[in-house]
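Exercise: predict the fold of this chain.
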Amino acid sequence: MLTIPDWLPQFVSSQMAAAIREEPKSAEWISETGGVLLFGTIGSEAFLRPDGSVWYHEVVNWPADPEKYEWREGRGNDRWAALVLGSKRMPELRKLLPQRPPNAPNCSACGGRGLIFPSPAEEARDRGVICADCGALGWIAHGAA
């Protein structure tokens, strides 16, 4: 079960309001999402809602119908990955990530980076493909929701 910090609902609401001020034409879409954008890529976007849940809006079948999207809740590593990505723009969201236990080993798939195929460029060292095994945490969060 998610523990929702007291500050989260107001934070999400204020981020949604700021997004609408920046792009008034997006008001209807932001209202439909019910949350703040964590990240977006081709065929998928993730949103944090005031209740702490992370929801993905994704293409159902890209080759057959690239215009048909569906909503699904992100859980486990899907949730962590979206929050890690969102925290790059909104550092406050790091508070929603699980605390790494002192004895937790690095993720063996990514070597603790949270990324596979990381960028070799120094200025882009935090860019790459999110590790599916750890959800970009760099360690395995057993039992974390």
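Check your answer against the key: The chain is about 25% helix and 25% strand.
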